[in-house]
Amino acid sequence: MRGPAEGTRGADSAGIGAQAKTLLIKTEETMIRRQGKRAGIMLALGLALWAGMSGAQDKKIVLRYGDHLPVNHFLVEPMVRHWLNAVTKNTDGTVQFEYYPGEQLGKAKDLLALTLSGVADVSLIAASYTSDKLPLTAVAELPGGPDKACDATSAFRRIATGEGILAIKEYAPLGYRAISVVVLPPQQIFSRHELKSVKSFEGMKLTTAGGAKEIMLRKLNAVPIRMGAPEIYESLSRGTIDGGILATASVLSYNLPGPAKYVTLGENFGSTVVIIGIGETRWKQLPPSVQKVMMDAGEATGRNMCGVLDRDTGADYEKLAQRGAAAVRFSAADHREIAAKAANVQAEWAEALDKRGKPGTEILKAFNNALTAGH
Fold it and tell me: Where residue 337 sits, what CATH number does that domain have?
């Protein structure tokens, strides 16, 4: 038998046990609530992180880029891809490009219109293909210009971008913005027939893109023929044409050595302006930080491309010689005669534009001043 004291101790023990059990249950409930809160916080953080990542992906800018160049063209790596890659890299991947070369988005002559309409966000255009819309841009394509591509490119950029007179007078009214510009090295005349002097051009059928180069050929008493570059090789091989005006790099790119036996050296029968540009409507949709990256990359790309062109011109003549096309350097007297005819072409070009209500003389003066400022 238990005594009274033992009964009391038993009751106390039972009470303490019940209290301990209750305390344990409450503690477990508290822990569960805390764990639940912690899990909720972790879930909220995870959702916020996912939303942030999703938002970052949503902020990526994908632009359609188009041009008329074959993927192996000499402008592609040092100009086109140089700029595209620089923009993507310097925006930390925010800007991506869909690349449509070889007239996939439209013909060369239509790329400016396609860019202004938004079919292409960004494109590379050759100004000579759109001379009806960009007549003043031809100032850097005139015969008798500078000998070096980088001299011409630097001067042209001064007037074609930012607050330059060409940007204001020609591009702004169209709703167009030049981002990267390059003026190719002076174009030369290639021929099936021997070139002994300036008189050798008389009566020759020579292909040209038109414009001031066509006027120049007429002053040389040649017969200008307008023809697309892909048609030149066959026409030259068949004798339909006697030659034409192209940059030495283009003579090589279009595989003309063979049918072309002679190429002039040291003359300037004109040039070609190429522009990577964008429509103002699309431009204004881009963040200022992206706009700055694009323009900075555009300037760097222009310097890179013209540097490659100037460096490679000498090598071009070596390649031409290896493939059967001889370089022809005219006498000093012939060189002066060609330069005088080129100066006349420049003056006539400016005057013709003035008569159409375009500031031809003003643009020519601005370009020449920019050339002087660069020296």
Answer: 3.40.190.170
